[in-house]
Design a protein that fits this description.
The structure is a homotrimer of 204-residue chains.
Chain A lengths: L1 H22 L4 H23 L4 H4 L2 H22 L3 H23 L4 H22 L5 H4 L2 H18 L4 H25 L12
């Protein structure tokens, strides 16, 4: 269960990387590189910090999923791209899943909840940050600051539900859903209230 | 002594991250994320390179100090921010302390002085570089190139004083002071001589 | 043989870092920092991912080569810089060599070809990406997307020739040459066909 969610998050992040790379008119290998870094960047940082083997180097399924999601998204990118929300939704699913995976890998390595939530947040956010930096965009984590907040709240829900003895699979679904809902709601509010932060902003 | 200096550097860097994030109008969790990455980014890189446990994952005091410094700086940011020099001074203290900590952790792991100075410099500079990249600013290490120079000179002072059998605590204070003084003097000269590099500069 | 190629790639990447830093008018230590990060950044990422000792921390020759290449390039940068192609050629040589070194270090650590090619590509590309990000340029890997493609094709040539029992030294030369030729040909075509991507590009 845990494992397949990790692969699902990898696919969702790869797809979001493909869309960002296509916007920058890269060729196939360029698109694949951005997709790959986006998909495995967060998990790689998590595994480096934990001092464990890097997941995608030991299990080729991560690579296959990335390649598959990349090719699929390249074929359907026009359809996906016409919908403004597609990148945000894919990104949110990846974030929700990776938050859970980061927390659970932290627990497996005997870390306390505060560190596990941090790991979950770093895991979920780092891939997207690298994607945006490589595409020379302001990282979306900065423009939509609720990005990291959603992961932290999701992490709190995780340990709250675990404390209440909710079953592990249910916790996974609830936490991932929490992250996705918070992030999409925040995007929706930002879209309908565009002037709140921009009127006398000091940055570009 | 060494340990408390590490926590002091962490607090100073967290505060500098808070100021940078507030300039970008982030909310509480966004500010905390930038503060955290700035505070522990350099030490994390150092520990990854050394192949040792990541300091903040094994000792929650780093997290508590970051949270405390973040909340404190948020409350007093108006006062701090009116003083142009506040970010530079906090940043310099963090750099001075982290240079020493990086060198000493290198020595503990049996590395030669050249590698230890490199570790100290990377440790001191990396957190600020990440802060600036995440805030979509040109890294201050690039605009104020004396940044890294101060750490390298501080590292030379460290091994010079150690060679002269100066006591460890005194060395720590002298080296941190050296880094802070070099950096602040260089900032002051840049401020009073603004035209030296800008007249026919090739960059933006 | 393998070892000296690694040092040669380090020198070539250091030189490309020096040129980028001089364009940004940094002082000696600033130039050295950019040169150092460019030269060892890719190998450092590779060694972190493999979980092995970081090459430049155990063998000071990497540091000496970086210092030597930095000083040499600083003295001759005017001559080098008048030739538009100098940075691209140095960069290509570094990429070609690092692709081979990354693949072979992956093989030494018992990884499959797909992972080895990925390691070679990351090793070859990451130093240049850090250089460009630190110099506040759009990473050249993004603007010249054939960058990563050259490494991936080079990796395929590596395993093709190895499968055909070509001797290891010959494979090294052929693969490095393949990467350099693909990259320089692609640069040449981009220079003579500048309007293909820029007419209705969505990015800046």
């Amino acid at each position: 269960m845990f494992y397949y969610f990790d692969l699902l998050g990898t696919a969702a992040f790869a797809a979001s990387g493909v869309l960002a790379a296509i916007h920058k008119r890269m060729d196939f290998f360029g698109i694949f590189i951005i997709a790959f870094v986006t998909a495995v960047g967060g998990g790689t940082l998590r595994d480096l910090l934990l001092g464990v083997d890097i997941a995608w180097m030991k299990d080729l399924n991560y690579m296959y999923v990335t390649i598959g999601a990349t090719i699929f998204t390249m074929f359907f990118h026009r359809e996906v791209d016409r919908n403004n929300w597609s990148l945000a939704i894919l990104d949110s699913i990846g974030m929700g899943v990776f938050t859970v995976v980061g927390i659970e890998k932290g627990l497996m390595n005997a870390h306390v909840p505060l560190i596990c939530i941090t790991l979950g947040t770093l895991t979920a956010c780092f891939g997207g940050v690298i994607r945006d930096i490589l595409a020379n965009e302001i990282p979306i984590i900065f423009k939509k600051e609720i990005y990291a907040t959603a992961c932290i709240v999701g992490g709190m829900v995780y340990f709250g539900l675990t404390y209440l003895n909710v079953s592990s699979n249910q916790v996974t679904v609830y936490v991932a859903t929490t992250v996705v809902v918070i992030r999409l709601l925040s995007l929706y509010f930002d879209l309908s209230l565009p002037n709140i932060y921009s009127d006398d902003s000091e940055d570009n």
